[in-house]
Every structure is written in structure tokens, then in C-alpha cells.
Amino acid sequence: MDEFIKKYNENLPQYKFLTETLQRTIRRLLEREGIDFLDVQCRVKNLDSFLEKINRKGYKNPFKEIHDFCGLRVICYYPSDLDRIIKLIKNEFKVVEEIDKSEDLGEDKFGYRSYHYIIKVKDSWEIVPDFRGLEDFEVELQVRTILMHAWADISHKLNYKKEHDVPKGLRRRLNQLSALFEIADDGFDSIKSMKQAYIEEQVEHFKSVQINEENKVKDIGTMELNVDTLQALLDELFPDRVRKLNNMSDLVKELTQAGITYNEIIEAYNTTKAVLEEYEEEYLSETNSDIQCFTQTGMLRHMLQLANDKYYNVYIEMYGRDHIILDVQIERLKART
Questions:
Q1: Which residues contact 52 (CB under 8 A, 6 or more apart)?
Q2: What does DSSP say about strands 139-145 and 70-76: parallel, antiparallel, or unpaired?
């Protein structure tokens, strides 16, 4: 046992380096692929847990038999994202072992889905000096949705890892809850698909509308104003600008409180789009910046501040003058319109 402890302590810096590096790497890979995720967690098995597992399992060669010294967990939002994440992992790493926990469950069994992998870094990583000698280190990687993660954490807190751990009187109730978690997971996935289909439908509707001053549209002024229809319009008006999804709820609130219709948004767009782009170019040239100044929501707010007094007054009432375009800028831009 003393030899095991000595070797564990010798390897600990490498375990930590590998785990934290892979955590950052997987985050970047997910972001690059446009896969939304809640978190990428990492941990290194502590010494007490290591020794407890040796005693419990009776391992004679723990550094070959224990595969989860380094642990990573990817927590995503929707079941439909799981396949994309798993494909990414298989492309970027060497998969030693693959375990689908749901395969162990019958239709009426206690438990919940989870996907586990034992991975190694690819041989090509050895090109980087810091990774030399780490090619044989294994890492346990778990991939779960938020609800899978919630179920695992709650059942772990109750100390119910297996069905036989549960008192008979509670098994039926836990099986019901397990089914509800799975139904909810699938339900959120369905809502995500319905939301995307709804947005695409609204985009097609806006595309069928000729947005110009000569042919102002009269049939969309009463269209329901919500986060999805507004995002569809912004995608049509400003397809090349950055989305700011966390601003959408506040923006809908502002527009609703001001009584702004989609006709008024289009009128503001026709009136101010050119001058705002000119103003943006001037601002960027003065600051030597090569990125866009306004996001989609920024363009809309600026347009309405310039062209719609109702919105301008409500915005000041809600946020104060410090958050508005400077008055001198408004006068400068209004002069151009």
C-alpha cells in the first residue's frame, strides 16, 4: 500500500495537468462546433477515494485496473445534443471503452441514462512537449443532459446507486420519478425542435414581405410579439450581425411597454439603417477597431431611439438617460435622416 501511495503522489501533478487541460480543450471544441452546454466539470480522484477503491475491489495492480483517476463530465441541455458531443469525442480522442448505462436498464428498472467513455489523448498530442508521457493515461468521460445529471446527483445523495439499494416500499416511487425525468428530457427536446420550426416559419414569413418605404407592409403590425418572432425578424434584417440572445426578453418587454408594432420596427429600419451603418463605420475608424459595433439587438434599440418617440421615452423611463445614446449623437444622426 505504501508503494501505491508513493506512485499516486508522484503521478498527481500529471493527473491534474491532463484533467484541467482536457477540460479547457473540450470546452473550446464544443464552442467551435456551436454546441450549447451547461458545464464541463473535472476532478482528480483523491487519495482516500483511491485507497478505498483498492480495498473494496481488491485490486492488485490499481494503476492498470482503475480507469477513473482523471474524470470529466460534459453536461448539455438536450438529448439531441448527446450524439453531436459523442461524435466529437470519438473524432478528437482515442476511445478505449464505451459504456451506455441505459443498456443495463429494463423498461421497468430503476435508473437513468448516462454515457461513459474511457479515453486517451491521441498519439499526435506527443508533438507538444507538455504532453509527452501522458499518452498512456486514461480519463473517464461522462456525457449527460442537465436532467440526467440532476437524477444522478439526487440518487447519489440518497445513496441509491443500484435498485437493490432501495427499500422495496420506495422502488415503485423512484421508478416513476425516473420515468418522469426521462419524459421531461424528451419533452424539452421536442420543445426545442418546435421552437426552431416556429422561428423558421416566421423567417419565411418575413422573407415574403417586401421591406421598403414604397411598399410598407400592413399585415404584420398585429403579429404576436415574442422572443421567437422578434429573433426571426432580426435574423432577416441583420443576418450578418451577432445575436445577443440574453437581451431578447428585456427587449420584448421594452417594445411591449412602448406599444411598438412590427410595422413600426420596419419603418424605423427603413428610416435609419443607412445612417447607423455610416455612424458605425466612423466610430470604428476612430477607434481603429475591426469588429462590428452593434449587435442585432443594439441595431434595433438604436434605430428605435432615433425614429420612434414612444420607444425613446419608455427606454429613458426604464433605464435612465445614462443608458441612452448620447443626445449629441442622436441630433447628429437625426440630421442625416
A1: none
A2: parallel
Buried b (16+ CB within 10 A) or exposed e, 65-102: ebebbbbbbbbbbbbebbeebbebbeeebeeeeeeebe
Helix ranges restricted to H, the chain? 2-32, 47-57, 62-65, 80-92, 146-157, 168-207, 227-237, 248-258, 262-287, 296-307, 309-319, 327-336
Alpha-carbon span 144 to 150, nearest angstrom: 10
pLDDT tens-place values along the chain, 337 residues long: 888 899 989 989 989 999 999 999 999 999 999 899 999 999 999 999 889 888 888 888 888 888 888 999 999 999 999 999 999 999 999 999 998 765 555 544 445 567 899 999 888 877 777 777 777 888 999 999 999 888 888 877 776 666 677 787 787 787 788 788 888 999 999 998 888 888 777 777 776 665 544 444 445 656 788 898 898 889 888 888 888 888 889 999 999 999 998 888 988 988 888 888 887 777 677 666 666 678 899 889 988 988 898 998 898 888 876 655 555 455 656 665 5
DSSP 304-320: HHHH-HHHHHHHHHHH-
Domains and CATH numbers, the chain: 2-186 (3.30.460.10), 210-336 (no CATH)
Provide the Cα torsion 212, 213, 219, 222; round to 10°.
Answer: 100
Q: What is the CA angle 36-41-42, rounded to 5?
A: 145
Report the half-sphere exposure of 25 (CA within 13 A, side-chain side): 13
- Residues 302, 83: Cα–Cα separation, whole Å: 40
Helical spans, DSSP H, in 158-261: 168-207, 227-237, 248-258
- Contact of 37 with 76, CB cutoff 8 Å: yes
